[in-house]
């Protein structure tokens, strides 16, 4: 492998002065040769991890997938999305729900970047095409246009367009897997926030057109059962929160001969909001 400290092969660093990018790792751009080497090394780790995963060695597979993310250039969003999704699968097998959620979310975040990049590329192509069509309209008379044969649309044969379409389909396929994994992990982890998040993930999956018939049944089943689970978790956690606030309030009010029993919370049936009324003990 090329020496990354060599002046001739020194990776370039993108400007991270934008405040919105401060929480993200600094992007390091490698030369094409270095990038190919690092990607090949990451692919080797990934292939070994796939073998381990299929053999049921999930902890060992997880370590290998992590090795792959360590060497994969951090600007290769699609490749990293695949790895993070696979890491999430390992955590699911080990019933490590929190880590599964984190890894699946990292995958989805990377895919969001891929989608934004593809959208930008498509917008540039569309603008260029519109400008090209406008020029053609100016230089071709209406009579000539009617006499000439209809131009062949070679967009489908364009390698760049075909490549972009494939990347879009690949990203959608990995998003489907990552969403299924995160939704399951959130459902298993439980709690108001996780269950509500699982419901949102399954709603997103219900609108996707690449979900298999088997997974579509899972999605439908979860969307039937989750609303009641979310409600129960919300009520339980709300009650626990009020209990802790009451305990804290009693500690503060006790020196004044008062307690939270002197204050009654009443809910407005129209707005759902609460008001507090003082009641002398």
Automatic annotation (TrEMBL):
Domain of life: Eukaryota
Biased composition (Polar residues): 1-10
Entry-linked Gene3D superfamilies: Tetratricopeptide repeat domain
TM spans (from-to): none
Region: Disordered, residue numbers: 1-28, 129-169
Protein name (record): Uncharacterized protein
Species for this entry: Coniella lustricola
């Amino acid at each position: 492998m090329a020496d990354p400290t060599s002046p001739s092969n020194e990776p370039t660093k993108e400007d991270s002065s934008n405040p919105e990018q401060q929480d993200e790792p600094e992007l390091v751009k490698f030369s094409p040769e270095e990038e190919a080497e690092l990607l090949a090394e990451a692919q080797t780790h990934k292939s070994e991890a796939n073998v381990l995963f299929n053999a049921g060695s999930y902890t060992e597979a997880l370590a290998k997938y992590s090795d792959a993310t360590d060497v994969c250039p951090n600007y290769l969003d699609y490749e990293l999305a695949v790895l993070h999704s696979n890491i999430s699968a390992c955590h699911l097998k080990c019933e490590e729900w929190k880590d599964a959620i984190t890894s699946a979310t990292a995958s989805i975040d990377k895919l969001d970047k891929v989608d934004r990049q593809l959208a930008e590329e498509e917008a540039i192509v569309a603008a260029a095409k519109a400008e090209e069509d406008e020029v053609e309209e100016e230089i071709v008379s209406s009579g000539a246009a009617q006499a000439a044969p209809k131009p062949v649309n070679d967009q489908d044969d364009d390698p760049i367009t075909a490549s972009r379409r494939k990347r879009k389909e690949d990203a959608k396929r990995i998003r489907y897997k990552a969403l299924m994994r995160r939704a399951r992990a959130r459902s298993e982890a439980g709690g108001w926030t996780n269950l509500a998040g699982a419901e949102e993930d399954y709603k997103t999956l219900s609108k996707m057109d690449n979900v298999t018939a088997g997974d579509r049944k899972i999605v439908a089943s979860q969307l039937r059962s989750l609303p009641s689970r979310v409600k129960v978790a919300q009520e339980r956690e709300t009650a626990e929160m009020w209990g802790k606030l009451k305990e804290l309030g009693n500690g503060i009010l006790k020196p004044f001969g008062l307690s939270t029993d002197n204050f009654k919370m009443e809910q407005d049936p129209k707005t759902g909001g609460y008001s507090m009324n003082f009641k002398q003990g």
